[in-house]
Amino acid sequence: MSAKTIRFDQSKCTACCACAMACMDEKDTDVEQGERALRQVYTEEGCRDGQVSFRFHSDSCLHCRVPACAAACTAGCLYKDAESGLVLYDTAACDGCGQCLNACRMGAISLNRHGKIQKCDGCIERQRVGKIPACVLVCPTGALYLGE
Where is the 4Fe-4S ferredoxin-type domain positioned along the sequence (predicted)? Predict the structure, then answer.
């Protein structure tokens, strides 16, 4: 089973945050306990020739072809899944050292309230049963979509 990765079309994003909310709900993220949302939505403001502009972004793990986070993980809990192609993790194996956090160029990895790794897994469990990732499912504009 080759999972599809979540892609982003910036021209369609309105920064509604539906994707981030769906992700937090799907992954039971507890922001009140200090957990960080696995999908971040932010606005970039600019001004050119007197015209103010806004660009919206929706970011999470890019599931790199050669993941620096997995190479940095001394506990071996992060790995590139050969079947799906996604960068996955085994929370039970995580020792909370934080080396992966420093290695990720996207800042897409954080520790949960138990001091264990948390990151986007492409909703692999949903994809394995033929469902669409939660963030893609709720995106009202199609800014998030599945691609190869």
Answer: 4-34, 52-83, 85-114
